[in-house]
Amino acid sequence: MNQESTKESNHIDNKQVVVSVENPLPHGVFVQLGDGTKGYIRRREMSWDGDIDPRELVEPKQKIKAIILENAEHNRRAELSHKLTLPDPWEEFVATYTKGDVILGVIRDIHPKGIFIRVWLGIDGFVLNQQLATWCIENSGETFWIGDHIEAIITRLDRKNKKSVRLSIRSRMTQQAMVGSVVKQISEDSTVQPNGDISLANLAEEGDIEERLNSLITAKVADHVGTILVLEDQDDLREPLVQWLSERGFHAVGACDVTAAIQMIENQYFNVCLVDLDLPDVDGIAFVKDLRQAKYDGHIIVMSGSDWLNERASEIEQLGVIAALFKPLDFAEIDTILQRIGTGKAPSLKQNLTPATQVKRKSFQKLAQIMQNHTSLQQRLQLGLDHIVELTKAEDGIIFYQNATSQTITVLAQVGRTVLNGDALFSLDDSPVDDVFRGETPIFETNVTKSAYFRFRKLLQLLPFESCIGVPLGYELSSNYALFLFHRKAQAFHQYRLYDAQSTAALLTVALENQLFEERMQRINTVLLSGQLAAGFGHEVNNKLTALEAQLRNLKLACTQIERETDSATWESALTQAKATQDGILGTVHDLKKTVHLFQSLGKEAHSPSFEPNKVIEQTYALLRPVLGKEKTGLTLNLASDLPLAPGSMIRLQQAVLNILLNGLQQMLPFDVKERRLEVVTKLTELNEPRPIKISVIDTGKGIHKRLWDKIFTMGYSTREDGTGLGLYIARSLVESLGGRLYVEQSLILMGSTFVIELPIEEA
């Protein structure tokens, strides 16, 4: 026994130690104990969550606590657990929740028999298919997506068994329906009780759910995984691994060396390859590289000893490998990876970016944020030009603009010390600048005077240069804008700088399109308001006129009766009725005046430099009231009394709120519900925040899948077949034009959504 092995064998299992992080990787962390012993902590042992990239938790040279699981022996690293040194979340969970409680969760996995919900750190609850809704859901994968937020009732909580948490969305829906809330109970003979209990039969069925879920992999998952090739030279590992995969329900075959593996790959497609990197006849990494060069597009999982993975970690990450397994293999880890492949959620080892690439990416991310903020267009273009000039090391940068009517070309923004010859601008309509305006191939020249002098002669009159890059801005804007970069040295720009310029041009286009949208909205605001006012005004006035006509007819009948009657008692009764009708007419006329005043006020206030958010919401409700009545939908306003003024035009907020309310209404219409409800809540948060005015718009619709929370604001995207994909896009654009923010704060599948508008306050 060597010295290191002797030293390592002295450690006691389950002993807590302090270790130093050597190399955190996506699949685990290589560490060193205080006496120099080498150790390894698997990804699932880093946290109770079990699925967090270790690089997000620790960094090299950091000291952390760990529990020894297995001592180092036979040239193997010691295995440790960091999560066992952390508080067990189960104790806090059972102290917080009990059976019958309502709990929020995130869908973690979808199984043919139900769905798994992450309800607490490292704790999943299970919902049987019959407990997913108050109606039968045949395909849970269509209604629920992984990552969706749900609300359910805890129907079973075994405090001694950490895996025994059962949930019911159906019970929660029934509970809400019984208080006149979201969903109408479809099944009249339902056994679900208001307190969330489920029948004894269901409880008995849930008792053995773990065994039934873990018996075999589903045929659908196995089909998606496809055939698995195991390349491993050790027979005593390869054969049992292939057998275990087959018993789990997968189709797996083994290869003992690279030659056999290549022959098998040539004759059959393998969607997954498990490759041992420490092969006797060839370097496993070289084999994986050859696979990628041969255009193999399947999933590659590598496996090897700890030191091998540690030493060549950077090479492994560059190969598009989805996972790296540390020997001895963890079969539960393999099963989890294959399950994810089978459900379309294959993991990935993130490639390490070079420092230069990281700087460039952060720079572009910052520029992207600038392009969408609310500084002036000139400032945004100037900042974008500064960015690309610095990135490409250009001496001069210019954004040209061509007037669509006169065809004259002007300089919109400039960076650099060169003094331009203004007279030369008048002749640029016959130059490469005009070529870019007309959408031709981007300009990339690195030795103008030698290879393209005649073509560039008029542009050279504007400023001297040898290297030049030119790209259009905004292909949807008829290319009236162009970005040019110049340098007086030949060969000053690499081809990659053209790509950088095109990327920056795309971001500058965002600023231009935002400005164009602003201008268009300014022009159509009056039209939008007029159209809405006309529709609302027409409906309200027609209602009043109909009532007025009916009351006048009643008055006429009363007067006729008075003329005919001679009996004093009957005459007095008819006179009383006539007076009542007269009062009704006066009331209707008064209401009509109020209606006219309301719509006149809306038209006037559209041009105000600031507005009262609560008043805008009340007026929006007045506009929407006829539609709400027709669709039998209630709208509740809970408006804070202390809201200050917000800057900008009230019509923009009105249109945004109207679009969100209509979107919520449309989401609820297909639902067979007892009561459709909308609610608007306003409140004032901390005044030192940039957007302290908060407006929440709540509906009781079917909810929005989590991964679509941002996508629904994309122009043209709609979750409805008959949707235009413009309503929420316009709403967000309008809110952002007010310096605000619009986002989905919460959306529970089958329960409803909450949209939030945040606005700044008017400066004193």
UniProtKB/TrEMBL annotation:
Record-level Gene Ontology MF annotations: ATP binding; kinase activity; nucleic acid binding
Domain Histidine kinase, first and last residues per copy: 536-763
GO biological process terms on file: phosphorelay signal transduction system
SUPFAM superfamilies (alphabetical): ATPase domain of HSP90 chaperone/DNA topoisomerase II/histidine kinase, CheY-like, GAF domain-like, Nucleic acid-binding proteins
Pfam family, one: HATPase_c
Segments forming a coiled coil: 538-565
Matching PROSITE patterns: HIS_KIN, RESPONSE_REGULATORY, S1
Keyword terms, alphabetized: ATP-binding, Coiled coil, Kinase, Nucleotide-binding, Phosphoprotein, Transferase, Two-component regulatory system
Transmembrane region(s): none
Entry-linked PANTHER family: PEROXIDE STRESS-ACTIVATED HISTIDINE KINASE MAK3, SENSOR HISTIDINE KINASE
Full protein name: Uncharacterized protein
Source organism of this protein record: hydrothermal vent metagenome
Lineage: unclassified sequences, metagenomes, ecological metagenomes
